[in-house]
Design brief:
35% of the residues lie in helices and 14% in strands. With 69 residues, the protein is of the alpha+beta class. Strands 1-2-3 form a 3-stranded antiparallel β-sheet. The two termini are 18 Å apart.
């Protein structure tokens, strides 16, 4: 059986923390920023943890997890 390939789009969008959790960038910070408040834009700037429901799928795409997505 050939080696599994890492999903190219996933490796650009997700990264692992030191404890093995997956972090991602917040959405809605790319355009149409004039109508969003400064407070809202600051909150969207950081990283957040991927929801545990989706973590298995993301780990599979990063070839960390086992089994099917």
């Amino acid at each position: 059986m050939p080696k599994m390939k890492t999903n190219s789009s996933a490796k650009k969008r997700f990264s692992l923390t030191g404890t093995g959790k997956i972090k991602r960038k917040q959405a809605f910070k790319n355009h149409i920023l004039t109508k969003k408040s400064k407070k809202r834009k600051e909150k969207l700037a950081g990283f957040v943890q991927v929801n545990p429901v989706d973590a298995g799928r993301v780990k599979f795409m990063l070839t960390i997890g086992k089994g099917k997505a």
